[in-house]
Write a structure and sequence with these properties.
Number of helices of chain B: 0
Distance between the termini of chain A: 41 Å
Largest interface: A-B, 25 and 30 residues
Structural class of chain B: mainly beta
Strand content of chain A: over 45%
Oligomer: heterodimer
Structural class of chain A: mainly beta
Shape of chain B: globular
Strand content of chain B: over 45%
Number of strands of chain B: 11
Order of helices and strands of chain B: EEEEEEEEEEE
Largest sheet of chain B: 7 strands, mixed
Helix content of chain A: under 10%
Order of helices and strands of chain A: EEEEEEEEEEE
Distance between the termini of chain B: 37 Å
Number of helices of chain A: 0
Radius of gyration of chain B: 13 Å
């Protein structure tokens, strides 16, 4: 089955700096890669996703890149703000209704 | 539009007792998923319903867990009898196949087994 590894487990950045979280996956059939943000005490919320027919996607300060050959994808947050502090999860799945296989999460702390 | 709701938000039970968790998906969503996050680890898949049918239950840990979705609307997840290792946060998510693959998560039920 699919195995998703996520690094780092914790990430501390100064406000205004960039943050990068990396994930690798094992199943070459995976074709959908979402990123979820979970703030303390709240539900996981989708912040950006990418499908395997695209190499990069950007939404304001957030971008995701995908390297299908190497089976890894990354989340990039630029100009970090204190409200970016949260746990970020990467995931992989096959198809439009497949189960999500999550990474272990990255605790991001943005210090003013 | 109301999001995915879960009840209760928190449950504390003793080992050996029974607990039933409930999930109400977004109206009209055929797909309903149960996930669990244990002790700060990754969120793990438990099972997937399409309407009232179990599409994939490969993540269910053992036969102490029973999920139902009668009528294809809300779902329940029963743990009987509960063990200490069942403690964690149980998330429900729903989605509707189409152009968007997004799964919408509920707020979770924090289960503590003592």
């Amino acid at each position: 089955g699919e195995n998703v590894e996520q690094h780092p487990s914790t990430l501390s950045v100064q406000e205004g700096d960039s943050a990068v979280i990396k994930c690798t996956y094992s199943d070459s059939a995976s074709n959908y890669f979402p990123w979820y943000k979970q703030e303390l005490g709240k539900r996981p919320q989708l912040i950006i996703d990418i499908r395997s027919n695209v190499g990069e996607k950007k939404d304001q300060r957030i971008a995701v890149t995908l390297n299908k050959t190497a089976k890894h994808f990354s989340l990039h947050i630029t100009e970090t703000q204190p409200e970016d502090s949260a746990v970020y999860f990467c995931a992989a799945s096959t198809g439009s209704w497949g189960k999500l296989q999550f990474g272990a999460g990255t605790q991001v702390v943005v210090t003013p | 539009e109301a999001g995915v709701t879960q009840f209760p938000s928190h449950s504390v039970i003793e080992k050996g007792q029974t607990v039933t968790l409930r999930c109400d998906p977004i109206s009209g969503h055929d797909n309903l998923y149960w996930y669990r996050r244990v002790m700060g680890k990754e969120i793990k898949f438990l099972l997937h319903f399409v309407k009232e049918s179990k599409q994939d239950e490969s993540g269910m840990p053992n036969n102490r867990f029973l999920a139902e979705r009668t009528g294809g609307t809300y779902s329940t997840l029963k743990v009987q009898p509960a063990e200490l290792e069942d403690s964690g946060v149980y998330f429900c998510a729903s989605s509707q196949p189409g152009e968007t693959y997004e799964q919408y998560f509920g707020p979770g039920t924090r289960l503590t087994v003592t």
